[in-house]
């Protein structure tokens, strides 16, 4: 029996994780759940899964959850703040930690789990982009086990020679090919992209996901972040990492070996598949998802991504090749730009425009190898991005 801690429990990945865990009560006990402020959502999950601990970042939300748990006679200790999340992620009794907070906010909790030598199931890709070298070095030093949840990186993990290990360059691998659906705007005429709304951007054709990653999928920044994530997890240079658009989202990625063999993992576009794989690894458990009906699918399509349509992919490739301060700056600027877009303060083409401006300004800056340096660069890039958003907003209003 293993204890499971779910960071970001109220999110899409968090809920899918609990769905899988609940199918295996003989193997997993839900020990702790965390969220930012969604009191009702976390309370409902506490009633269903009976964790020993629950944490909300916001104190007022935590106070309210404490009352709700007491009134419902739940034996759950409710804590508040980021430090409490970090403590739970490193709890001596925690066996597996699902890292599923969205964005850079997940860095400290993920680092905490890594430094405690946990088995960390990592969905939260942004910390790998902003602080990949630090996370991998700390993981090696503290004997943590990282298992990727992102469907592409999990697919690659499954196709690597066994036993696969993140942080080591796999033997005999020539190239990793990440598949991408192309998102909701794969075929939208370029001239119409100017006017797309947040509602259109978050409507993904194949996957149900949180808002931020849904916008990232529309711009293909998600695939750009995933290229950097792959370089960090599998230690391959930019010229050994490729992206191909595969609109059916049935093949989740491909490993090409030096002998020309290509191994791929297939499955339904349902995150419970990679989640169950990671929870069970090296065993296999039921996920609640069946296989694909290949005959019904009929055929698979592939096409090269067009960087004019998806400038965010070009920017991420550039950041990957240049390294230094750029991946962290790209990630921070993207988070600020996507939030502004979701709040109607920035139009859709403004997202890559803001990121490019921040990357240009970041070019001469120090990368910041330790945690303080990484956080300082992240904070600087957020300020620069906010200024760029305000500037673009002004010029749009005057246009
Ligand atoms: P959601 O937006 O659905 O959920 C985010 C979770 O993080 C919620 O529990 C939220 O709490 C919590 N959270 C948000 N901000 C903070 C904060 N500042 N401090 C602490 N907790 C916070 O995201 P997803 O589940 O879609 O994605 C989670 C991560 O997994 C992302 O990094 C994403 O890129 C990655 N991922 C997601 C996939 C998917 O299919 N959804 C696929 C592959 C990767 P609250 O509800 O209280 O706001
Ligand atoms: Mg993915």
From TrEMBL:
Keywords from the UniProt entry: Isomerase, Isoprene biosynthesis, Magnesium, Manganese, Metal-binding, NADP, Oxidoreductase
Pathway linked to the protein: Isoprenoid biosynthesis; isopentenyl diphosphate biosynthesis via DXP pathway; isopentenyl diphosphate from 1-deoxy-D-xylulose 5-phosphate: step 1/6
Pfam families in UniProt: DXP_redisom_C, DXP_reductoisom, DXPR_C
Any GO molecular function: 1-deoxy-D-xylulose-5-phosphate reductoisomerase activity
Residue span, DXP reductoisomerase C-terminal domain: 266-383
Enzyme Commission number(s) from the entry: 1.1.1.267
Binding locations of 1-deoxy-D-xylulose 5-phosphate: 125, 151-152, 181, 204, 217, 222-223, 226
Residues in 1-deoxy-D-xylulose 5-phosphate reductoisomerase C-terminal domain copies: 146-234
Ligand binding (Mn(2+)): 150, 152, 226
Superkingdom of source: Bacteria
Catalytic activity line of the entry: 2-C-methyl-D-erythritol 4-phosphate + NADP(+) = 1-deoxy-D-xylulose 5-phosphate + NADPH + H(+)
Annotated ranges, domain 1-deoxy-D-xylulose 5-phosphate reductoisomerase N-terminal: 4-132
NCBIfam families membership: Dxr (TIGR00243), PRK12464.1 (NF009114)
PANTHER family per the UniProt record, alphabetical: 1-DEOXY-D-XYLULOSE 5-PHOSPHATE REDUCTOISOMERASE, 1-DEOXY-D-XYLULOSE 5-PHOSPHATE REDUCTOISOMERASE, CHLOROPLASTIC
Role this protein plays: Catalyzes the NADPH-dependent rearrangement and reduction of 1-deoxy-D-xylulose-5-phosphate (DXP) to 2-C-methyl-D-erythritol 4-phosphate (MEP).
Identification of the protein by name: 1-deoxy-D-xylulose 5-phosphate reductoisomerase
Native source species: Solimonas fluminis
Gene symbol of the encoding locus: dxr
């Amino acid at each position: 029996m293993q204890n499971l801690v779910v960071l970001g429990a109220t999110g899409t990945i968090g809920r899918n994780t609990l769905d899988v865990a609940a199918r295996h009560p003989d193997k997993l006990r839900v020990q702790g759940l965390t969220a930012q402020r969604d009191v009702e959502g976390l309370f409902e999950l506490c009633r269903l899964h009976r964790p020993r601990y629950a944490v909300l970042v916001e104190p007022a939300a935590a106070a309210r959850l404490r009352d709700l748990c007491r009134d419902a006679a739940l034996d759950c200790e409710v804590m508040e703040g980021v430090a409490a999340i970090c403590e739970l992620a490193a709890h001596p009794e925690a066996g597996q930690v699902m890292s599923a907070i969205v964005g850079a906010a997940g860095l400290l909790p993920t680092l905490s789990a890594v430094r405690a030598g946990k088995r960390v199931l990592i969905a939260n890709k942004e910390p790998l982009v902003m602080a990949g070298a630090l996370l991998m070095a700390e993981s090696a030093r503290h004997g943590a086990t990282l298992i990727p949840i992102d469907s592409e990186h999990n697919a690659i993990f499954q196709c690597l020679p066994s036993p696969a290990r993140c942080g080591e360059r796999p033997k005999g691998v020539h190239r990793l090919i990440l598949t991408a659906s192309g998102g909701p705007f794969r075929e939208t005429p370029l001239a119409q992209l100017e006017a797309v709304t947040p509602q259109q951007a978050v409507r993904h054709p194949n996957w149900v996901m949180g808002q931020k990653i849904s916008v990232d999928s529309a711009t293909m920044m998600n695939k750009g972040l995933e290229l950097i994530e792959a370089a960090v997890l599998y230690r391959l240079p930019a010229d050994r990492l490729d992206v191909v658009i595969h609109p059916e989202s049935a093949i989740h990625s491909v490993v090409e070996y030096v002998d020309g063999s290509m191994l791929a993992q297939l499955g339904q576009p349902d995150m419970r598949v990679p989640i169950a794989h990671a929870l069970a690894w090296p065993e296999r458990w039921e996920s609640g998802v069946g296989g694909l009906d290949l005959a019904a699918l009929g055929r698979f399509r592939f096409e090269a991504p067009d960087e004019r349509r998806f400038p965010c992919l070009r920017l991420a490739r550039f950041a990957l090749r240049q390294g230094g301060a750029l991946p962290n700056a790209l990630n921070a600027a993207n988070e600020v730009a996507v939030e502004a877009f979701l709040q109607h303060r920035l139009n859709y083409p403004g997202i890559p425009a803001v990121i490019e401006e921040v990357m240009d300004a970041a070019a001469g800056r120090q990368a910041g190898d330790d945690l303080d340096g990484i956080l300082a660069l992240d904070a600087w890039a957020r300020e620069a991005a906010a200024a760029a958003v305000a500037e673009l907003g002004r010029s749009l209003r005057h246009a």
